[in-house]
Amino acid sequence: MKIEVWQGDITTLAVDAIVNAANESLLGGGGVDGAIHRAAGPRLLAECEALPQIRLGVRCPTGEVRATAGHDLPARHVIHTVGPVWQDGQRDEPALLANCYWKSLQLAEKLGLHSIAFPAISCGVFGYPLHQAAQIAATETVAWQRSHREPRRIILVAYNAATYKAYQSALAAQGQPIEPPPSPLLPSLDLGLPPAAAH
Ligand code: AR6
């Protein structure tokens, strides 16, 4: 098994779960969070609003995860996680970002999911340095895959070429060089899903 890397829009993937790089309110925002809410439709926001607040305005603390349905997305589920805001690297940012990956995988396993796709959590608005974040994504996902059977397909989604390259070198450093993607890469055809789920 290998960690897969794919460049494109995560909202188009017909996987069991896509991960959302959300904020603690879980009520949407910009970046990938905004794209996921737009593609999933208003029922996603309604489901998020109904999740309990553990503190005023906080439905999911940094480093934690919550699951919802995918609603209008091709993905069946959304696993929402909140990455750390980068400050100086000395405020537990690496451990919190590692938790986002590991706990998403734990939740996916608990839900019986076979495939999960991650965006580059914290690498946009939250300002985490790309190469350091890619190393954490690679370390956590490779460690998971070496010690667990499911989810058997783990996809790191790069939205741009720089992120794609950062994943390539981070995975190579884990002894896991990635293969060139099949061309053309059609996610809904490539992810081994039954035809009914792939639209
Ligand atoms: N598909 C895949 N990756 C994407 C997509 C997409 N459609 N759109 C953006 N990215 P960000 P963060 C990449 O800012 O840094 C929101 O407002 C993007 O290029 O979405 O964790 C939330 O509500 C970058 O590499 O998330 C929070 O307030 C990566 O996704 C805050 O931003 C993450 O960028 C979270 O900030």
Summarize the structure in words:
GO terms for molecular function: O-acetyl-ADP-ribose deacetylase activity. This is O-acetyl-ADP-ribose deacetylase. Keywords: Hydrolase. It comes from Stenotrophomonas nematodicola. InterPro entries: Macro_dom (IPR002589), Macro_dom-like (IPR043472). The protein is α/β, with parallel strands linked by helices. It has one domain: Leucine Aminopeptidase, subunit E, domain 1 (3-Layer(aba) Sandwich), CATH 3.40.220.10. It contains 6 helices and 6 strands, in the order ββααββαβαβαα. Strands 1-6-5-2-4-3 form a 6-stranded mixed β-sheet, sandwiched between helices. The longest helix has 18 residues. Bound molecules: ligand AR6. The site of ligand AR6 has 24 residues, from α1.
How are the secondary structure elements laid out?
Blueprint: E1 4-7, E2 17-21, H1 31-40, H2 42-49, E3 65-69, E4 77-81, H3 93-110, E5 115-118, H4 130-147, E6 153-158, H5 161-173, H6 187-190
Parallel strand pairs: 1-6, 2-4, 2-5, 5-6
Antiparallel strand pairs: 3-4
Helix pairs in contact: 3-4, 4-5
Ligand AR6 binds at residues 9-11, 21-23, 29-33, 35, 83, 119-126, 157, 159, 163.
Order of helices and strands: EEHHEEHEHEHH
Q: Could you tell me the mean pLDDT?
A: 92
Specify the biggest β-sheet: 6 strands, mixed
How many domains, in number, for the residues?
Answer: 1
What small ligands are held by the chains?
ligand AR6
- Could you name the ranges where pLDDT drops below 50 across 5 or more consecutive residues? 184-199
Indicate the radius of gyration in whole angstroms.
16 Å
Strand content: 5-15%
What is the tally of helical segments? Answer: 6
InterPro entries: Macro_dom (IPR002589), Macro_dom-like (IPR043472)
Keywords: Hydrolase
Protein name: O-acetyl-ADP-ribose deacetylase
Domain Macro: 1-175
